[in-house]
Amino acid sequence: MVAVVAVVAVAALALRDDGGTSTNTGVPLPRAPGRTDHDPFARRADVPVVATPGSPAEAATAFLDAEVVSDLETSFRYLSADDRAEQGTPAGWQETHADLWTARSYRLTGVVDEGSDGATATADVQLEPMVDEFVGVVPARARLTLPLVREEGSWHVVFADSTYEPEYPDEAGAAQAVRTWAEARTRCATADEWDGGLLDSPYLAEQLCGTHDDVRLGRPDTLDALADAGPYLADFGERAADWARVVPVEGPVELDAVAAPLGDRWVVIGTSPPRGARR
């Protein structure tokens, strides 16, 4: 299926300042919620929702159907009055889509009628995954929440208030990716490495080239385990603290490898001095 630009990720798309420095949140979906009890590495199984004529579910379905086939004139009509005023015209809506990631499919999983002309729809979306310093990490799957409002007798999506919950691959895969990467590096090759290059201290990876001792790993941890997480937070935003995994490489070169989820696998995005080491 040809990937197309999807609106299920636009409202809080990060901007760059005049100096070219990324000021994004590292989250390419709508307004990201704060930390919750939800496990972003957990899988979900829900029963799809049947959309009846004139219901909030029908409006959410029509909106997402239009987005998946890139029919932006149609999806624009399903936006709330405030969203349409913000975008101006379908052409403005199309321009907003220009820098977004792409969606493969979606499944409506729930609709709650909240009364007072308000409702909320949820959908599981399949995305084209990526790791990008501007957009951040785009997961292969996410749970999208779309508020809806009844205006002039019909339901519309309040896209500016949309939120999401990402779903990442099993974090145990981060350690395996680091092992594969480190073993390749000892042969002066690369594997399971982000094509954007290594952040922070790439010279540490270069020191692995030509070494012969077995690769030894420590226990995976979160970004807080680093002596300085600044380079990763600066490039990928604060949400990197949620998805990044730090795997200590204890030999043949001592370093902390940082991995990011890319679809259903992990890639190494940086190397840092181990905790307590001087730069």
Topology summary:
Layout (H helix, E strand, L loop, with lengths): L3 E2 L50 H13 L3 H6 L3 H7 L2 H8 L4 E14 L2 E10 L2 E3 L3 E3 L2 E11 L2 E4 L5 E5 L4 H15 L12 E2 L2 H4 L9 E2 L12 H7 L3 H4 L1 E7 L3 E8 L2 E8 L7
Parallel strand pairs: 9-13
Antiparallel strand pairs: 1-2, 2-3, 3-6, 4-5, 6-7, 6-8, 10-11, 11-12, 12-13
What is the helix tally?
8
How many E strands? 13
Taking all residues together, what is the mean pLDDT? 83
Strand proportion: 25-35%
The run of helices and strands is EHHHHEEEEEEEHEHEHHEEE
What is the helix content?
10-25%
Domain unit count: 2
Distance between the termini: 47 Å
Shape: elongated
Largest sheet: 6 strands, antiparallel
CATH architecture annotation of the largest domain: Roll
Name the CATH class of the largest domain: Alpha Beta
Question: Would you tell me which CATH topology of the largest domain applies?
Answer: Nuclear Transport Factor 2, Chain: A
Q: Structural class, judged by helices and strands? A: alpha+beta
Low-confidence stretches: 1-36
